[in-house]
Amino acid sequence: MLIKTLTPLLLLALSCLPAARAGGISKADLGRALFFDPALSASGTQSCATCHAPDKAFTDQRGSGVAAAVSLGGDGHSLGDRNAPTVTYAALIPDFHRKADGTYVGGLFLAGRAKDLAEQAGGPPLNPIEMAMADKAAVVSVLQKKPFYRDNLKALYGEAVFADSDSAYAAMTDAIAEFEREPEFATFDSRYDRFLRGEIELTPEEELGRTLFFSQQFTNCNICHQLSRSQTDPHETFSNYEYHNIGVPENRALRAINGMAGQRDEGLAANPMADSTDPGLRGRFRTPGLRNVAVTGPYMHNGVFKDLRTVVLFYNKYNSRAARRQINPETGEPWGEPEVAENLSLEELETGPALDDQRIDALVAFLRALTDARYEHLLSETEEAGEAGSTDTAEQ
To answer: Which residue segments constitute the domains of the chain, with CATH numbers given?
Structure first.
């Protein structure tokens, strides 16, 4: 292996690989190296880990201000239009499919345009705003020039893996997907998990939030954010992975600088695997899982909200008539109009009574309790923002 040509970050990734086994390294080991390798980008500066940093719960926290809503491209100036979601628990998202009742479920990327984890892994290297490689052949050329990749891809996927670019590229994406299926991406060791195992007690505020979250009387959060029928399922990911339009406003500040002003994100309607003739799909995005949600902001598909409490208040506006609840606390202005005004999931949104600040804070506390143990130290970075706007309790 020509380690002199490897970057420090890639060397760190390779140092995490187990000692050589009789059969060589595993597909997941290979995927780990690929995940951290910036050579898979045209600029040679951007890897999967650039936008999905392990120490930041596999999200992109590089940006500041408006630009923090999305990721910076490998060219150093391009900005996309959607927020980079965490890769934690992504392996548990079901493949994109349509149920018998016509409901679309699962898929990777925020609108499900990648059927599965491997297909998603193949997207960024060829995206002109992200890693910007010219085509699959250009990526495969990089792989062939590095003995570590060339030899291990042949060992793991067969001597004919480089017979054509498509097969070699598919092997690469499969390896990355295998890495993302490793237990480190889905540890199920948050405070909530430790509570379920009887190891700790939740605080009174967290317990109130848990009650509210699963309540069919007060919030109905679990209509969309519960996969299992059991409230105590130890592997709950807090999403049914279906698609909804919840009325997220356009991120106009972002679009003023990313060159996409005046466009409309059609969400599921733009998914090539969905029914392009169905206008009811416009503006729908996959319901995200909530594990690590407190440390993976900004929020919504376009990163329009910075703080988790703002998200809870946004949902509450559908059930509150109070004037102050119609104000976005981050801007001091009324909530923006939905980017896609049709197809709002009002049946799910307009459920339950308005919540006072105590209950809103309790929901936030419960959501914070869904943070993996290794990322709990990141919660302190959100505390100040989470406390802002929580002092006014007289009105619902």
So the answer is: 3-106+115-185 (1.10.760.10), 191-387 (1.10.760.10)
